[in-house]
Amino acid sequence: MKICVVCRRSQEEPRAFHLGGKRLRVVAVIDRWRDADNSYYTVSVGDGRRFVLCHRPASASWELVAVCRPSP
After folding, report:
1. Count of domains forming the chain
2. Domain of 22?
3. Sorting pLDDT into bands at 50, 70 and 90, what band is 72?
4. In contact, 28 and 43? CB cutoff 8 Å
5. What single DSSP character describes residue 60?
6. Three-state DSSP class for 65?
7. Nearest 5°: CA angle at 35, between 13 and 58?
8. Taking a C-beta distance cutoff of 8 angstroms, is the pair 31, 22 a contact?
9. Where residue 10 falls among pLDDT bands split at 50, 70, 90?
């Protein structure tokens, strides 16, 4: 699912993203990795949910890859 992500100008690391009409602020980047073409970020938001976001530089787009339940 394509999403709108807010980043710092000097970095591509996500700071917030829009999902379902709501802006979710990233409180932590838990993990990051790359493959040959894309960058991936596991992030957490204020309510404890975790999301995996994919940045595709070739198309200058972001995609929601996975949603994880909050930790108990």
Report:
1. 1
2. 2-68
3. low
4. yes
5. T
6. strand
7. 70
8. no
9. low
Single-letter amino acid code for the residue at 45: V
Specify the residue for token string 């993990």.
Answer: 31
- Please give the share of the chain, as a percent, with pLDDT higher than 90: 67
One-letter amino acid for residue 4 of the chain: C
Q: Which of 11-20, 22-31, 44-53 comes out lowest in average pLDDT?
A: 11-20
Query: What tokens appear for 57 in the block?
Result: 């530089």
Q: Considering Cα of 35, then 53, then 16, then 59, what sign does the dihedral take?
A: positive
For 2, the token pair is 């394509």
- What mean pLDDT is reported for the chain? 89
Tokens coding 18: 């829009």
Cβ–Cβ < 8 Å for 53, 5: yes
